[in-house]
Amino acid sequence: MFIECTKNTGRIEVICGSMFSGKSEELIRRMRRAVFANLEVKIFKPQIDVRYSETNVVSHDAHAIESTPVASSAEILSLVGTARVVGIDEAQFFDDGIIEVAQTLAEKGVRVIIAGLDMDYLGNPFGPMPALMAVAEDVAKVHAICVRCGDLAYVSHRLSKSDKLVELGEKDIYEPICRACFNALRKAGKL
Predict the structure, then answer these.
(1) Fewer Cβ atoms within 10 Å of its own Cβ: the N or the C terminal residue of the chain?
(2) Can you tell me whether residue 141 is helix, strand or coil?
(3) How many CB atoms lie within 10 A of CB 129?
(4) How far apart are CA 155 and CA 176, in angstroms?
C-alpha cells in the first residue's frame, strides 16, 4: 500500500566541531539568510552562556544576533511562537530534552538549526550532541586549525587544571588541537 506524503519543510540541521571552528558564525549566517528570505526566526541559547553577551549569540569573530536565553530545553517550545526557523546555539549545554524539542519542532514544519560542540575537552561525545546528529537531516562538521601544528583541529583542549565538565572560557582556557597533538598530550600524561 502506498501512503502519500504531504510536503513538510521541517528539518533538523546540526553544525558541530571544536571551539574556534566557526559553529556560531555558521548558525548566525544561516539565521540571517532566513531573515533575508522574510521568514520569522527565533534563536535560543543556554542561560549559562554569558561569555560575550547575556542575550545575544556572539561568534568569536564578534558577529552577533539577538537570542533568547533559556534555562532548559522545555522553555523553547513555549517561546517559539510562529517562527518558521529556530536557531539553537551551544546545544551541548542543554539537557537531553533538546532532542525531543528539535524533533517536535521539525515535525511541525519548523527548520531547526543547532550548533554545538560535538566533543568535550577529553575527546568524549558531549551531552545531547551525538543524538542530535543522529536525528538530523544534515550535519556539518566545521574545523578550527590546530594551534600547535596547523592541521585540522579535532578537540578543544583545556589549558586549565579544572576537571569540571562545563567550564566556560575562551582562548585563555581552551585551544583547538588536532588528533595527533591531543594523543601526544595524552601519552605524556598532560590531560
Answers:
(1) N
(2) strand
(3) 24
(4) 6
